[in-house]
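Quick question: who can interpret this fold?

. . .
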Amino acid sequence: MAKVYVSSTIADLSAEREAVMKWLISAGHQPVHSYRPDSDTVRESCLEDIDACDLYVLILGHRYGFQPDQDNPNYLSITHLEFRRAKQSKVPRIALLRTIVPDITLSDWRDPHKTQLVQAFEEEVRREVRPAEFNELGGLIQGLSTGVQHELANLRLVVRQDDPRTLQIVATLTDEPRQS
């Protein structure tokens, strides 16, 4: 079972978030998100929650999202900050990009400044990962399942250098006398 952080804007992607959460649970994974009351700011709790996860899933639509003022010199959205934090924390990232705008009133396409932010974020995502594109829930789930399976297979193959258990295994192997 993997802990999977799910990141997206809420107003425009509620059906997609729900579908991703349901799929993760049915596949035996634990979805994680930061939309619950706690004593931290939204920014702090989101970023800290990512660090405790095995995978990060971004669902990116056509809305930039909330941009906190505090500790945010570049005035990035929470979703954008989460994407960068997953990279910084070396949490494998899966990006799912919506290719259609089903309801323009729930997008930022009428605001030129916000549209530029959405486009710049999407360009950054495309530079850093190979996203799956979708225009309906079936395509979303196909991209999600393919991405999760691929990243989990990679995690099983890669021995993390910063894992103290890895150092213990290496030390145990090198401390054993060789037999001729």
